[in-house]
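(Fold this chain)
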Amino acid sequence: MMNFVKKVIGPELDIFEKKFAEAVRSNTPLLDRIMKYIIKRKGKQLRPMFVFLCARLGGQINESTYRAAALVELLHTATLVHDDVVDESMERRGFFSINAIWKNKIAVLVGDYLLSKGLLLSTTNEDFVHLHILSEAVKKMSEGELLQLEKSRKLNLDEDTYFEIIKNKTASLLSSACAVGIYSTSKDEILTNELKLFGEKVGIAFQIKDDLFDYGFDDVGKPTGNDIKEKKLTLPLIYTLNKSGRETRRKLIHIVKNENKNPESVKFVIDAVISAGGINYAQDKMNIYRDEALAILFKFEATPVRNALEELVRYTTDRKY
């Protein structure tokens, strides 16, 4: 699926790997060891791919583009490290999290180190627009996370608030990755805003896809119900609550609040969502956001770069994990 993308920007991604490893190096032995651990276990590199492809829409990739991609990854990794502390997660992508191995205090300091590395990378090279765009994203991510925490306590979440949360929490970083990418090669503010919106729509579709995985759709095996266990109200469940009669609604909220660790009760919620049409509703919404993103992309002329970006957008909604 990603072969075509790798063909178009493969060399750039290889150079980026080396530059990123260089960007996080530390003279403190413990920090350096942790950085190597982080680099070894990096994910699919989706955000750097968006940075480089969006950059290519605007011109030739340059040093500013590599710094933009490194800044996105530094801030993204910092937020993941801090998230694992907040969520008390012992695992990240099938490996031990930083806090599981080195404990919370060190994990928080590592997140701070990554943030400061990002700030220094930008200020040293006077990439102030990059820094402004990404600082805005980190602010939104914190706001989205806090809004979600507040709402999961009371479980009073409507669809508008759900979209506000995921726009801030998930979509803002992808949106920024696209924006800094094209700005690094074009210095064009209108194009930068266009691609910011493009990235936001892709990010929202990406998050809805994640929500659907919780219900075991798209060949990911049996439902996990993790979101229910964590009292997270996602789109399929919000839709179901709005469609249900008073009794069912009360029962569903009671389960999410008080019986979210009971497998039978979680199964009741999943079944209710499926029979109310919550899955189909969420899939339709996801496809609307994907198509709106593609409509922005198709304003650019058809080139291998545009085709690779289209493939990346379709991957976010068609992926199996």
Remarks:
- The longest strand covers residues 91-92.
- The chain is about 80% helix and 0% strand.
- The radius of gyration is 20 Å.
